[in-house]
Write a structure and sequence with these properties.
HIT family, subunit A; five-stranded antiparallel sheet; 5 strands; binds adenosine monophosphate; binds zinc ion
Amino acid sequence: MTCVFCSIVKGEIPAHIVLDRDRVMAFLDINPVAPGHTLVIPKEHYENILEVPKDVLAELMEAVKAVSKALINYGYEGVNVLSNVGPAAGQVIMHAHIHVIPRKSGDELFKRPKTQRASDEELSKIAQELRRLI
Ligand code: AMP
Ligand code: ZN
């Protein structure tokens, strides 16, 4: 099956490109959460950001910084930088991408679910397990 983002890289389908570098590019999300919502992608196909090698990842994050600064110069107050990894996390396009979502105070785009303070015992147990798995 052809990949939509690979088709954008090849110029086979149109996109509103905001940055085009050696191994990465950025274009406007066709279904934006807010005007200027941008996707930053590696030109080569990787399924998600966990698969992207570190030299490309460095270029990807430089592009994320450039896009974020541009959105702030454009008039936004901040950005959310996020990447969905896996369908459970909401990933729909299986070509690695990072969302840069422009924010203004009070826009209420995302609300953190209600949380409560975890116990030190629980945090310590989880941290120990994760250290073992890394
Ligand atoms: P995700 O849920 O992280 O996989 O997000 C995929 C994003 O790609 C969504 O926000 C879509 O609106 C966006 N998208 C899908 N097709 C296109 C396209 N042809 N051009 C630009 N953005 C797209
Ligand atoms: Zn692809």
